[in-house]
Design a protein that fits this description.
The complex is a heterodimer of chains A (248) and B (366). With 248 residues, chain A is an alpha/beta fold. Helix content of chain A is 35%, strand content 18%. Chain A is globular and about 50 Å long. The N and C termini of chain A lie far apart (34 Å). Chain B is an alpha/beta fold and 366 residues long. Chain B has 2 domains: 4-199 and 226-235, Rossmann fold; 241-353, 3-Layer(aba) Sandwich (Rossmann fold). In chain B, helix 9 links the parallel strand 11 (250-253) and strand 12. In chain B, helix 1 runs parallel beside helix 2 (35-43), helix 1 (9-19) packs across helix 6 (144-161) and helix 9 (256-271) packs across helix 12. The N and C termini of chain B lie far apart (48 Å). The chains are: A alpha/beta (248), B alpha/beta (366). The interface between A and B is large, with 35 and 39 residues. Strand 2 of chain A pairs parallel with strand 9 of chain B.
């Protein structure tokens, strides 16, 4: 009988410390499946952020570099400029990438730095206990927007893919959601394209993956998935925003 | 050693770094060190290296972190406000045991300050600077030739202790030109391989992790202890220079630019029969405390005289070393002002005669 699933070698075998219902585990696995299928394990180096996925220092079974909050794209730039033939990935949340790391995000993209970012957007700071993120939707309540995000006090959520699409440097920009079976499949396909862009030396690539945070949203995992479908994807439409020539 | 050539301090530092086997530079423009990145941008492509102008010092130091994580020799040059921005990254490098060389061409501060030579960043460089319990190795050149010679030491010490090394220079040493001799080129391929580096497993080994993080206090304490263990024998790498110290009764203690000026003061004062000498720390961390304590204990030494381009920062380490054996006097200039030889000679003579002497810029003492 054909075995349809197995544990991808790039994924460590330990248990994660993520909250019940967290989707990081799914996204980690997708990254690892793609690395394995594209035979990139022995040349991959992943740069980890500050946030929930700092915990991933233990979850990838290949070379990993933990970085300061927001600086993963700069650290990855240093890695890639030192070793241009290695496969360099950053894995960042929305607070890390789009708030404190906004400068590093924009300039790595503008330089067309030949690295790939997996950007996990759940619209909230998870590790620190549920504060408002640059991606928190209007009206959403958080620890630091207890009356709901409003334009007078907090301004508007940032659409990263649309913003980076204005630059010449990126070769591939896509937004997917990892909250449905179809979305998970599309996420994996987008990761493959992003990695291909890097392998072909076409420039910067980023896959924004819409995700949940049941703990800090104060929801059951099932309700959190519904929220992404009903609210998140309305403001953050999924799809490809930039596909360089040479990437079919 | 080759022929003597005339070179500006910032450029000499850059060429010396390349000759020490460094092929990667990340930085951001700031005066008075802009000649260094300009030189590197021109020169590194010639030797197969990479030059990257970052979007900020914050990004630059983290690029340095990433490059160091792969095991390569890497350098940045900056000046005081830029180093402040880099300090978070330096703490991360110390925490993750990453070697790199950071040159601070110190200028007047605090805040935007000016672009003239100063020594107000001693505390920042020597006492850690960023968050957490760590030290960087700190070396302080006082001539352009020493800018060159200390560059190899800086990289070697960084690699030996797996920690950032700071070259504490200043605006004068960055901008001045002097005749120098450059060392032979080091081929980076001949440098020892770093088996801890996150350079991709390449089918040769298991995972390498570059990390300064452990959520569990007992785990982090172990990491902290491992980090400090490597400094157990750091004293063996102490460097200092002594000038006319054998019979000195009055001992100047100064580093960098001030020490250089004092060499002329000593010449003039010795000609008039005053037995002055100079103790110049070259490593500021580790500080040459043992030697300084021994000097202070000599019967003929009447006082030590610490002179800095600040309100007095190194003097704290000098006093700790001297341990009240002798009086430690102080004179300082600030804001980018550099004392003249006449000025320092006059103050020293007052101290020798036991007259009230200015401490330089401190109104409640002058």
């Amino acid at each position: 009988m054909e075995r349809l699933t197995h544990h991808p070698a790039p994924l460590a075998t330990c248990q994660t410390s993520y909250c019940p219902g967290c989707i990081h585990g799914v996204i980690h696995r997708l990254v690892c499946e793609v690395i394995e299928e594209m035979d990139l394990l022995q040349k991959s180096i992943i740069v980890l952020p500050v946030g929930c996925s700092t915990l991933a220092v233990d979850y990838f079974a290949f070379d990993s570099v933990q970085s300061a909050h927001g600086r993963a794209c700069a650290v990855a730039t240093g890695v890639k400029r030192s070793l241009p033939d290695r496969h360099v990935i950053t894995y960042q949340g929305d607070g890390d990438y789009a708030s404190i790391g906004a400068a590093e995000m924009v300039h790595a993209a503008a330089r067309g730095e030949n690295i790939t970012t997996i950007f996990v957007n759940n619209g909230i700071y998870g590790m620190t206990g549920g504060q408002m993120a640059p991606t928190t939707l209007m009206g959403w309540k958080s620890e630091t927007s207890p009356y709901g995000r409003n334009k007078e006090t907090h301004g508007f959520p940032v659409r990263v893919c649309e913003m980076l699409s204005q630059l010449n440097g990126p070769a591939y920009i896509a937004r997917t959601d990892a909250t449905t079976i179809a979305g998970i499949r599309k996420t994996k396909a987008a990761m493959k394209k992003a990695f291909t862009a890097q392998i072909k030396g076409l420039g910067y690539s980023v896959v924004e993956v819409l995700s949940t945070c049941p703990t800090n949203w104060g929801m059951t995992p099932v309700d959190a998935l519904k929220r992404v479908k009903e609210e998140t994807t309305k403001y953050y439409p999924t799809g490809e925003f930039k596909v360089a020539e040479g990437l079919e | 050693m080759g022929e003597k050539i005339l070179m500006k301090g910032a450029e000499a530092i850059s060429e010396a770094a390349i000759r020490a086997g460094c092929r990667h530079f990340f930085g951001y423009p700031i005066t008075p060190q802009n000649e260094a990145p300009a030189y590197m941008a021109r020169r590194l492509p010639e030797v197969g290296g990479s030059f990257t102008q970052a979007e900020s010092e914050v990004a630059a130091v983290n690029m340095l972190y990433g490059c160091a994580a792969t095991g390569k020799r890497v350098i940045t040059t900056s000046s005081s406000p830029g180093i402040s921005l880099m300090t978070e990254g330096i703490s991360y490098m110390a925490g993750a045991d990453l070697p790199a060389v950071i040159v601070n061409v110190v200028r007047g501060g605090p805040g935007l300050g000016d672009i003239a030579p100063a020594q107000g960043d001693y505390f920042q460089a020597v006492k850690g600077g960023g968050h957490g319990d760590y030290h960087c190795i700190v070396v302080a050149p006082s001539t352009i030739q020493e800018n060159v010679d200390l560059m190899k030491s800086a990289f070697d010490l960084a690699d030996k202790y797996r920690t950032p090394t700071i070259v504490l220079s200043d605006g004068l040493l960055g901008q001045m030109m002097e005749a120098i001799e450059l060392p032979e080129m080091t081929d980076p391929a001949t440098l020892p391989h770093k088996d801890w580096a996150a350079d991709g497993m390449q089918g040769k080994r298991g995972k390498n992790l570059i990390n300064s993080f452990d959520l569990l206090p007992d785990g982090l304490e172990k990491m902290n202890i491992e980090m400090w263990k490597k400094f157990k024998n750091v004293e063996e790498d102490v460097m200092f220079e002594e000038v006319q110290m054998d019979d000195a009764e009055y001992v100047f203690v100064a580093y960098g630019t001030v020490a250089r000026i004092l060499k002329s003061v000593i010449k003039a004062m010795r000609a008039n029969g005053h037995k002055v000498g100079l103790f110049r720390p070259i490593t500021l961390w580790p500080f040459p405390s043992k030697r300084l304590a021994e000097i202070a204990s000599r019967p003929q030494v009447k006082f030590l005289f610490d002179i800095e381009l600040s309100f007095g920062q190194m003097i704290e380490d000098v006093k700790l070393a001297v341990s009240c054996q002798k009086e430690v006097k102080f004179y300082g200039r600030q804001g980018g002002m550099v004392p003249t030889t006449d000025e320092l000679e006059a103050v020293t003579l007052k101290h020798i005669k036991g007259e009230p002497a200015p401490t330089g810029g401190i109104p409640w003492n002058d």
